[in-house]
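BUG: 3D viewer hangs when loading the predicted structure for this chain

Environment: internal workstation, default settings.
Expected: structure renders.
Actual: progress bar stalls at 90%.

Input used:
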Amino acid sequence: MSNTQARLPLPVESEWTALKARKVSFSWEDTPLHWVPDDAFATHTINVLHLLLPAGERWFVHVYRQVLPLIRDERLRADVIGFIGQEAMHSQAHDEVLPHLKELGLDPTPYTAQVDWLFEKLLGDRTLPPGRARRWWLLERVALIAAIEHYTAFLGDWVLNAKELDRRGADPTMLDLLRWHGAEEVEHRSVAFELFQHVDGSYRRRARTWATAFTALVFLWQRGSRFFMENDPTLADGRATFKDFYVSGKRGVLPSTGAMLRSIPRYLSRTYHPSQEGSTEQAVAYLASSPAAVAASLAEKGAGAA
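Structure tokens produced before the viewer hung:
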């Protein structure tokens, strides 16, 4: 076997599952501002998801609709369509948390306006001539999404197994939102990477866009955490530091710094494939028991029977 063949990403076929968008419904009136009790920092660090994901996942959907005509594999096309449906539902679910935060005295609008600009303007469509330049920009964004999805799957796997949040008495509705979303991220964790491999697959582009995505995510996350801590009406001197993140990771209420760093060489390995990480079985099991997903499914069945 040649070196080139040996380096091809090898999917774990048993980890594949057909994708579908699941309707959910969450009620936020009983969720407190600090939904991880007595831990504003962990609460607000995770809350950054509500700032980034609505715009980010709308951007995913927009880019993937443009790349659909380039897909020549029917199963991959079906996976991408399922991915689009799931990401659209994620965006909507996280968007619905923002009015609740505003009611609690924490207006996210100044930060979300910046995030909207990032995805709609900086990473949006550009006026480029048809041909090589336009295709280059499309492939760059497909590769960026693959890199970002590596981390959304990492976070999804983490929150599914974050038992310390349960031990701390974290709000069950927020935990369900995070775990429902995280489970679908684990479930569809291979789609973005396989799409990138299908339409391009350049290792140089994969490494370059990983560096861009990782740097942007770290910057946006620390900026979002600081925004929340500084504007929390219950904190006199709210701050967010990397030391706080490190300590919270050691305590298990946030992902550990070590685990995040170890995820880097895995993604950059030439034999990396997302199906080698996480567990589809665990993800699907949670999705079958998620209170919000179950309630929405029962309501849909009831409406269909009426």
